[in-house]
TrEMBL record:
The UniProt record lists the keyword NADP: no
Protein's cellular compartments: Membrane
A Gene Ontology cellular-component term: membrane
Repeat recorded as keyword: no
Membrane-crossing segments per the record: 6-24, 36-55, 67-86, 98-118, 130-152, 164-182, 188-208
Protein name: Uncharacterized protein with PQ loop repeat
Listed PROSITE patterns: PROKAR_LIPOPROTEIN
Keywords: Membrane, Transmembrane, Transmembrane helix
Main subcellular location of this protein, as a coarse class: membrane
One Pfam family this sequence matches: PQ-loop
UniProt topology in membrane: Multi-pass membrane protein
Organism, scientific name: Actinoplanes campanulatus
Length: 221
């Protein structure tokens, strides 16, 4: 039992390290190199709200791995969002903003409501975490699906703003989270991680197949 607990802890912190490391390629691409082409505004907005929700989830179940990972994730999400809004003024209009940010706002409201309820006398943290987990699972679908769909919808678009390293690390990170959550009996995290893994693999496939024609053209030039 002690060995299993130790291995689970190691796996959890390894997943956390992968998650934190995968944020930096996109920050470098969007914030330093100022490339945002190909990014889904809906996914980026949810990239801010989701970590905040997982922090509350971690607080409810007492999981320091979730708390630490998503504290960093919230900061990274805000950085990429600021870079996106700075580079694409059309996204700062009220109509575009409401369309892209509506899901993120709803998730933040649900997270705030859960945090408020958890402070009431007689509150059941496990029940609240289960309810929040359902909300987060739906939000993960909204956050992860738009990016691969956007890339599949237009295979000829400019992909310079999409960091391939971020999605490769994302696949490894989601796989680690799925195994970690399965070991701890966290079904919401398992579903979210498997969804993230599948979406990451789709994005990696699109990026890999998009680069082949260009490489072939350069080789024959």
């Amino acid at each position: 039992m002690g060995v299993r607990i130790l291995l689970t802890a190691v796996l959890g912190w390894s997943a956390a390290a992968l998650t934190i490391s995968l944020m930096w390629p996109q920050i470098w691409t969007s914030c330093v190199r100022r490339r945002t082409a190909g990014l889904s505004p809906t996914a980026i907005w949810l990239g801010v709200a989701l970590p905040a929700g997982w922090i509350e989830y971690g607080l409810l179940i007492g999981d320091p791995v979730q708390i630490a990972t998503n504290a960093v994730g919230t900061g990274a999400g805000i950085a990429v969002l600021v870079a996106l809004l700075a580079a694409r003024p059309e996204l700062r209009t009220r109509r575009a903003g409401l369309g892209a940010a509506s899901g993120a706002v709803a998730l933040l409201l649900a997270t705030a409501a859960t945090a408020g309820l958890s402070n009431l006398p007689g509150a059941d943290p496990r029940a609240l975490s289960s309810a929040l987990g359902v909300v987060l699972t739906g939000a993960v679908l909204l956050a992860n699906v738009p990016q691969p769909l956007a890339l599949l919808r237009d295979r000829g678009q400019d992909l310079s703003g999409v960091s391939g390293s971020r999605w490769v690390l994302g696949a490894a990170s989601n796989l680690s989270w799925a195994v970690y959550a399965a070991a701890l009996g966290q079904p919401a995290v398992v579903v979210c991680s498997v969804t993230g893994l599948l979406c990451s693999l789709v994005v990696c496939f699109v990026l890999a197949t998009a680069r082949r024609p260009r490489a072939a053209a350069l080789a024959t030039a």
